[in-house]
C-alpha cells in the first residue's frame, strides 16, 4: 500500500536482524513485509514508529482486558516503582496479589507465582507428577500450553509432527496427544490409572480457535477424579476474561490446578499456578533436612511476583472483581462478531465468524471438494481442529497484512481479543477494515463465495 508508510519500520527491522535471534522477540511477531514496531498505546488503539494507527485486537497477546495505559494500572506501577523495582525478597504486595487470586479463582486455595504462562504449565506438570508419582500426561491436539519441551508438540498442524527442532519426541517425555472429541479414547486411556495429569486449554484449542466439545470439562473432571489423575486447566488466556473466576467459574467445574498469566499481571510479566492445598503443600519446607531435600517440589525464579507485576496485577484484578469490565468487553466482541458475520453474508463468502466472551475468530473454507458441497452459509461452520487451524498460510498471512494496512492488528491466526477499552468508533473503523479486506481476498481468489 503506497499510502502506508513503513520506512522507519524497515530501518528497525534491519537493526533487529543484526541483533535479535530470528529478528524478533516472539515467533508470532514476525510479519511481512516487516514486523510492527509500536511506540505507544492508549485504550484500544496503538501507534507504530511510522505513525500508523491501529485498532488493537492483539491487546498484548490478550493480556490487556482494560486496554493500554489503563490509568489505575499506570498509577499503581508509578507508586511501586519509586519504592524499588526488585528486592529478591517477598513483599506485602505479593501477599495482597495472592489473596485476590484465591478470592476470585475457585480452584486456587494456594498460589505460586511465576513469570509467564509457559512457566505456569511447566510448574503445574511438575506438581502433578510429584503428587501422583506418575509420569504420563494427556494433552489434546491443537491445544497450546506454551513452548517448553513437554508441551511444544501437538498444537500446530499437522498435530503428529514436531513443532520445533531440538525437542525429544512425545514418547520419550511421557506425553500422549489425543483428539479432544474422542471421549471413548480419553476414558479408555485414563482407566489404566497411569496418568499424572490431563491438561486442557479451557477455551478450546489455541484460545478458542477450535472450540471444546460440549461436556468435555465435566467428563474430564469425573474421569480424572475416578482414576487419581490431576486435572489441570490452562486458563492463561481465559482467566479473568470469561469471568472473574475464569471458565471454571462459568462451567461450575473445579480443576485440581489452574495455570494463569496474561490478565493476571495487568500487562506486566507474570503468571501463576493456583490449586488445591494438598497439592500446593508440595512446595512446603518443614525444617527436616531429608524432607526439604528429597520430599518436595523445587521452584525458583528471580522475578516471581516482582513488585511492579504485583502492583499492576492488583490494580487490574480489583477492577475486574465485579465483572463489569468483562461484560463490557464481551458486549463489544459480540458487536464485532455480528458486524463480521454481516459482511460475510453481504459478500456471500464461504466462511463464518465465531468465538466466546471477548474473543473472535474467522474461518474461510478453501477446500475445493467442500466448497462444491456448500449450498448455503449453514453448510460452512465446522468444529474440526484440523480445518479450523488448517487454513492455507498464504491466506492467513495476506488477511493479516491487508487488515494491518487498513489499521487493524490481530492476534495469531484470523482472530482477536477485545477489551473494555474498545469504543463504538473502534468497531466502526474495524468493520470498514474487514470489509475492504474481504473484498480484496475475493478479488485475489484467496477466498470463495458460496455456490
Written overview of the protein:
The radius of gyration is 22 Å and the shape is globular. By secondary structure, it is α/β, with parallel strands linked by helices. Helix content is 40%, strand content 14%. It folds into two domains: 7-68 and 324-443, Alpha-Beta Complex (Aspartate Aminotransferase, domain 1); 71-320, Type I PLP-dependent aspartate aminotransferase-like (Major domain) (Aspartate Aminotransferase, domain 2). The protein contains 18 helices and 14 strands. It has helices spanning 7-19, 59-62, 71-81, 92-104, 117-132, 170-173, 183-191, 205-208, 216-226, 246-251, 277-280, 289-294, 307-320, 324-346, 368-373, 385-388, 393-405, 424-443; strands at 38-42, 45-48, 53-56, 110-114, 136-140, 175-178, 195-201, 230-234, 257-260, 271-275, 351-354, 359-364, 408-409, 416-417.
Main sheet properties: 7 strands, mixed
Q: Helicity, in percent? A: 40-55%
Distance between the termini: 31 Å
CATH architecture of the largest domain: 3-Layer(aba) Sandwich
**CATH classification class of the largest domain:** Alpha Beta
The dominant shape is globular
Spans of 5+ residues with little confidence (pLDDT < 50)?
A: none
Number of domains: 2
Strand content: 5-15%
* Quaternary structure state of the chains depicted: single chain
Mean pLDDT rating: 94
Outline the fold blueprint.
Layout: H1 7-19, E1 38-42, E2 45-48, E3 53-56, H2 59-62, H3 71-81, H4 92-104, E4 110-114, H5 117-132, E5 136-140, H6 170-173, E6 175-178, H7 183-191, E7 195-201, H8 205-208, H9 216-226, E8 230-234, H10 246-251, E9 257-260, E10 271-275, H11 277-280, H12 289-294, H13 307-320, H14 324-346, E11 351-354, E12 359-364, H15 368-373, H16 385-388, H17 393-405, E13 408-409, E14 416-417, H18 424-443
Parallel strand pairs: 3-13, 5-6, 5-7, 7-8, 8-9
Antiparallel strand pairs: 1-2, 2-3, 4-10, 9-10, 11-12, 12-14
Helix pairs in contact: 3-13, 4-13, 7-9, 14-18, 17-18
